[in-house]
Description:
Elements (H helix, E strand, L loop, with lengths): L2 H26 L3 H25 L6 H29 L1
Helix pairs in contact: 1-2, 2-3
Amino acid sequence: MTFNGILVGFVLPLLSISMLIIFLRLFRGPSVVDKVIALDLLVIIGISIVAVYAVLFDQPMIIDISLILALIAFLSTIAFAFFYEKRNKAIK
């Protein structure tokens, strides 16, 4: 089995199944923190799918898109943590 066959036959279905499970957590998450973590995981899975696409079609320029998505996801998680901590200090 070739490397591209492994990507198409194993990695992409596994990423798709994990994306469906994460969507369930996003919609059923009991708290806002659970939903933010699920959204962050969805971005990570999206980055993984973009990276697999770049490897499959030999497009190294597309990796830049995944780096930008990772930076945005990291900054949004940090911003959420900052505002969540401020809110908890204001309540106490």
